[in-house]
Amino acid sequence: MTRVATGRHYLMCPPAYFEVSYSINAWMDPDRPVDRDRAVAQWQRLVDAFLELSHKVDLVDPVPGLPDMVFAANAATVVAGRVLAARFRNQERAPEVPAYLEWFRTHGYPAARPASMINEGEGDHLVTRDRILAGRGFRSAPGAHVEVAQFFDRPVVALDLVDERFYHLDTAMAVLDEQAGEIMYHPEAFSPASRAVLAELYPDAIRASAADAAVLGLNAVSDGRNVVLPATATGLVAQLRERGFQPVGLDLSELLKAGGGVKCCTLELHDA
Ligand code: ARG
After folding, report:
1. Is residue 139 part of a domain?
2. Which ligand 1 atom lies nearest to the CA of residue 88?
3. Were both Cys, which of 88, 120, 157, 265 would link to 74 (CB 3.0–4.6 Å)?
């Protein structure tokens, strides 16, 4: 099968103040040292990979004292040019919202507004042509998907996450082709009811092994052909190749210490 890439627009934030100084997920251990220079180099390599694939990358200025601001995916959900900013569950990340809102309002999204319900942006919202898949259970509030459905006027499917290692939807699932509705995911990260919903909606999905999920292999970004993901997810790399995708394996091991990877660092601006 021939896969066709389409040009993408991403918003990212340099990890200039990245560190693990608090713990708000199962991956974060403030006693484990982080090499910030290495994190910056790994992140830059991700930016370069997107630029080499001819995607557009915009940058938001990092703010001192906000070590998780590098995880841009959490800041907002952007569909058809409309921006619903996040409302973080943890106070540590709350000040990221005004910083990102300021960027949106001054870069062509004057109507960007904060959400009323707790939701962590595209960390928990994965967008396809037909619907928005919405994770909940650890971060986004149980009713957040209702606000999202109203705001974007799209069907939203709420999915319950049950494994604390996979606390955002984008740690357990990735959209590979939003036009065709092709996804990859790790069934065990979801409740039995949500697993049944996914099996029904996406019978042909790539299912990730426990080993690939455990290195956040599903925290990936696809342009319809090229799939940027952690190189350590070797099983997924092979499964993607079999389906005609072009895997691009990277090392984001420093950012993984905060529980983040490729997709967490990448907020896709779905402008159309
Ligand atoms: N340390 C961050 C947090 O716990 C990591 C966020 C990862 N982002 C994501 N989209 N999964 O909030």
Report:
1. yes
2. 12
3. 120
CATH number of domain containing 69: 3.75.10.10
Report yes or no: 230 and 261 within 8 Å, Cβ to Cβ.
yes
Is residue 124 within 6 Å of ligand 1 at its C-beta?
Answer: no
Q: Which parts of the chain fold into alpha helices (H)?
A: 36-52, 96-106, 144-152, 192-201, 210-214, 234-242, 253-256
**Could you list the active site residues?**
168, 264
pLDDT value of residue 21: 97
73 lines ligand 1 (CB under 6 A): yes
- Give the model confidence (pLDDT) of 49-93 as tens digits: 999 999 999 999 999 999 999 999 999 999 999 999 999 999 999
What confidence tens digit (pLDDT) does each residue in 127-174 have?
Answer: 999 999 999 999 999 999 999 999 999 999 999 999 999 999 999 999
Instruction: Kindly state the DSSP code that residue 252 receives in the 8-state scheme.
Output: -
The answer to whether residue 95 sits within a structural domain is yes
Ligand 1 contacts CB of residue 172 (under 6 A): no
Q: Where in the sequence is the domain holding 186, given as residue range(s)?
A: 9-268
Beta carbon of 123 within 6 Å of any ligand 1 atom: yes
Nearest CA, atom 9, ligand 1? 264
Query: Which residue owns the Cα nearest ligand 1 atom 7?
Result: 260
